[in-house]
Amino acid sequence: MEFTLIEKSRLEQLESNILEIKESLSQRNESDLSSTYIESKKVPKLLGISQKTWQTYRDNRTIPFIQFGSKIWVKRKDIEDFLNSHYISKNI
What we know:
This protein has about 90 residues and is mainly α. It has helices at about 10-35, 45, 50-60, 75-85; strands at about 35-40, 65-70, 70-75. The protein is built from four helices and three strands.
């Protein structure tokens, strides 16, 4: 086994840097999740539809969703794909 001596202040700085990196990665992972998925209760407002219409969309699997127990999540991309599939372009 090989040992290397470093100053205590340098070791403390390294520990501090590692903790900052760890915190930054943790925050990034949380923001990635919230930017990728939307809670089901926010979808009707986002789409401008009623809660009943949103329930019908889920029942008919019009927009895919993820369910864990009573919690439902929807991928932003699936909502975007749904909107794009219903896009009506202007005829020239």
